[in-house]
Amino acid sequence: MKFIYIVFILFLTCLGLDVSAINSTDTILVEKLNKEASALKFSEPLKGIKRANDALKLSQKIGYQNGLAESLRIIGLNYSVLNKIDSCIKYYHKALEIFKKNKNTEGIARCYNNLGGIYKGLNQNQALKYYKIALSMANKSHIPDLIAGCNSNIGTLYIEKNDYKNSIPYFEKAISIFLKISNNIGLATSYSNIAMSYYYVNEITKSEEYAIKALEIANENRLETIKLYSYDILAYIYVYKNILQKAQNYADLGYSLAKKLANQKYIYEYKFLQYEIELKKQNYKLASEYLKEVHSLDSIEYQKNLANIVKLNEEQIKNAEIQKQYEVGLERQKNNRILFMAAIIVSILSAIIIFILIRSKRKTEKSNQELIALNKEVIRQKEDLDRINLKLEEIIAERTKDLLSKNQKLSEYSYHLSHQVRGPVATLKGLIMLSQDNLIEEKECIVQMKKCVDDIDEQIMDINIALHDPSRHGLKNPNQDSGNL
Known about the structure:
This protein is an all-alpha fold. Helices cover 88% and strands 0% of the residues. The protein has a domain at 404-484. The chain is rod-shaped and about 210 Å long. TPR repeats lie at residues 69-102.
């Protein structure tokens, strides 16, 4: 029985280890895909979205909720680089909902930080609220890269508010943390942002220094979006310094890269920058053409924004339904897993019970066979005892009969001795007495004594024969003459 329990426990342990090993391998792969997708956001955001979608599908397959939420968040990050605000908000809220359900503090904080980045261009007060929630959670959980990221993002929010002076301390704090943890992406982002702040507070030398640092890191790590931003700042710096050829070079590089990345925001930004450069060159005809393109892009962007608002509302309704279906699917998957495990356990227990019953039946049958064999042996021994008893009874009866016969003989011998043998002895004594008193002649006395001795001898011989002859019953009873003497 102990052996069965040990086998059962080992089976469940192996099953648990096997499932654990599979889940561990798959979760590591999900995390790897998510990291790759996040790293691609500044270089190849479309490829980053594809990679994050691969992680998303695998997370759904294995039921890895935190990996699923992180995949959704990173898809949102890549869409934010492409300036697709509606898609960003959709994916960030999906991720936030799952992180909240799983009580993942770090995931929740990162989602709030990302939402702050989106809302800083829509609702600055809401954006600041999101950033402060994220920063508070990051400080409590001691997440250095998120603390630095939140500080950097709060700095960018002050840039949006045109409060450049107050943005600088946040960027400096972020830069110090990013340097400690060797986060090149965060460092390049913060360098480019602080360069913008110093530009607007008229510290052009510091602005140029940080912009060049940002561009160097972006070139080393293929951070295309940061290169885009750095080209823009450097172009404005050189317009301000009236080094127009350098400004034109950076503007051309930035416009080419914006076209390559299909970033509409920076396509518009560089068109406007080229207009300002041509205006500064007093090339009014070309400046006018650029201005027309800017107005055209403004009109297109306005129409797109209106369409995006409508689309966003539709997608929010659709996503709410998808999320509901997804939650139902997750619940069903969870129930199926529980039912599957319960079925396995019930099957194993049933197999054990059946095995125990079969073993018990076999033991019972074996015991019954042994009892039948023992019963037969008892009956045989009883019959043997009955035969022995019967034989003993016969022997006892025979011996009893023999004893009775011998007792009879002894009784007869006793009587015979007391009567038949005693008579001749008494005669001899009488003869001796007569001889002593000289009342009988010696010759006659001898004759009579011989007769008595012969009689005694005959009686003794008869007793001896009777003792050795079982067929004899009783003793001879001869006529005694001695009694007449």
